[in-house]
Amino acid sequence: MSAKNEIQPASVEVLGKGLKLPVIAAPMFLVSGPELVLACCHEGIIGTFPALNERSSDGFESWLEQIKSGLASAGRGTRNFGVNLIVHKSNPRLHADLDLCVKHEVPLVITSLGAVPDVVDAIHSYGGVVFHDVINLRHAQKAAGAGVDGLIAVGAGAGGHAGTMSPFALVNEIRQFFNGQVILSGCLSTGRDVATARMMGADYAYLGTRFINTRESRAVDDYQQMISRAAAADIVYTDKVSGVYANFLKASLQQTGMLDAPADPEKHKNIDFGEELQPPEDETNSAWRDIWSAGQGVGSIVDSPTVAALVEQLSDEYRAACEEHHKASGHFGQ
Ligand SMILES: Cc1cc2nc3c(=O)[nH]c(=O)nc-3n(C[C@H](O)[C@H](O)[C@H](O)COP(=O)(O)O)c2cc1C
Predict the structure, then answer these.
(1) Nearest 5°: phi and psi at 147?
(2) 195 lies in a domain?
(3) Where in the sequence is the domain holding 203, given as residue range(s)?
(4) 328 vs 24, 50, 193, 201, 325, CA distance in Å?
(5) Ligand 1 atom 15: residue of nearest CA
(6) Which residues, 6+ apart, have CB-to-CB distance to 134 below 8 Å?
(7) Which end of the chain, N or C, is surrounded by fewer C-beta atoms within 10 Å?
(8) Does 29 contact ligand 1 (Cβ within 6 A)?
(9) Cβ of residue 133 lying under 6 Å from some atom of ligand 1
(10) Is the pLDDT of residue 27 over 80?
(11) What is each CA distance from 314 to 205, 219, 231, in whole angstroms?
C-alpha cells in the first residue's frame, strides 16, 4: 500500500463537511449533466458527471463554469462536485480535460480504468480529492499504490461496467489493506441501502441508477419508464454491446435487436473507450443512447421525482433505518 494512504489529506475531510447524506450521485454517460450536478449539490449530496458527456474539452470547460457559478450563487448545500475522467490510452482528451480540472480546482475527480500517480499528483496539487472505481482486488491494490484517496467498490449488479464480486467480499478485502475512503457502489436505491453501506464500513454510498429516474437527469422518458417497470431479473449482464461486460435493461436490448444478435469477436479485440464513450451523432443504434444501462437496484425504483424530493425521501429512510438499528441492537448479544 502506498504511504500516501496512511495520512488523509485535509481535503478528504472537507469533501464530506456539511453533507445532508453520505451520498454521491454517480457519474453516468449521457445521463448526468450540469442540471443534475447542481440539483444534487443544492440538496446537500455530491453531484458528479463524466467529462466525456460534453463533446469537446471546450464544452466541458463551459459546464465547469456553469456548475461553479451555480454553486457560488446558491447559498445552500455543498460546493463539492465531482468529474469522472476515463484514464485510458484510447481517451484522446484525457490530458486536456485533466488540465481543466486543475485549472478549475474540481473538488473531486473520479478516475476510471487507469489509476496513474501523475493524474493523482495533478489533482492533489490544488487540494483536490481522487476516488478510483474498481471491480476487483487487483485493480484496488494498483490504485492504492498510485496514491488515490478513495476506492469505489463497484459490486455485482451495478449499472454500467459492473463486476461480479459480492459487495461484502469487496469492501472487507479492500479494508484489509486500504486506510483511505471506501465508497460502495452497486444496486443502492434507498436510504436504508445508504445506511447499510455505512454499516458495512463504507464512508459514502454511490448511487447511479436511482438518479437516472429524476427530473434533472438527461435520460429520456421511455428509459425512465422502463426502469420504473423493471425488476432485477430484467437486467442482463453482457459484453455483446461494446466488448466490455456491463448491465443493460433487457427490454432495450430486445427493442434494438441486440438481445439475440450474435457476439462480435472484433469488439473484444479493439476496445476503444474514446469511441464508445463519445456522445453519438447519427441515428444508428448506439450503445448507451438506445441500449440502456441500469443496475439490479431497479426493483426499488417506481418513480421519477425531482432530486429535492428524492434526497428528502432518502434522508427520511436513512434516519428511520438508523433509529431502527439503534433500537434493535439491544436485542442481541446480551
Ligand atoms: C447509464 C449509466 C452510465 C454510466 N456511465 C458511467 C461513466 O461514464 N463513468 C463511470 O465511471 N461510471 C459510469 N457508470 C457507473 C456509475 O458511475 C455507478 O458505478 C453505477 O451506476 C452504480 O451502480 P447502480 O447503478 O446500481 O447504482 C454508469 C452507470 C449507468 C447506469
Answers:
(1) 90, 20
(2) yes
(3) 11-218
(4) 28, 41, 17, 19, 5
(5) 160
(6) 140, 143, 151, 152, 153, 154, 174
(7) C
(8) yes
(9) yes
(10) yes
(11) 11, 21, 20
Say which amino acid occupies 37: V
Distance CA 113, CA 92 (A): 14
Nearest CA to 253 out of 265, 241, 242 is that of 241
CA distances from 4 to 120, 121, 269 (A): 11, 11, 36
In the chain, pLDDT over 90 holds for what percent of residues? 80
Residue 108 lies in a domain: yes
Q: Residue 68: how many CA atoms within 13 Å on its side-chain side?
A: 14
With respect to residue 5, please indicate whether it lies within any of the assigned structural domains: no
Write down the pTM of the prediction.
0.94
263, three cell numbers: 457476439
129 secondary structure, DSSP code = E
Residue 190 CB–ligand 1 contact under 6 Å: no
Instruction: Give the containing element (helix H, strand E) for 275.
Output: helix 273-276
pLDDT band per the 50, 70, 90 thresholds, residue 7:
very low
Cell matching residue 300: 426499488
**Tens of pLDDT along 236-292?**
999 999 889 999 999 999 999 889 888 777 766 566 666 666 666 665 667 788 899
Q: Is the CB of 154 under 6 A from ligand 1?
A: yes
What whole-number distance in Å separates Cα of residue 85 and Cα of residue 259? 30
CATH number of the CATH domain containing 15: 3.20.20.70
Cβ(155)–Cβ(11) below 8 Å: no
Cα(15) to ligand 1 centroid in Å equals: 21
Is residue 285, in this structure, part of any structural domain at all?
Answer: no
Q: Is the pLDDT of residue 2 over 50?
A: no
Q: Is any atom of ligand 1 closer than 6 Å to the C-beta of 193?
A: no
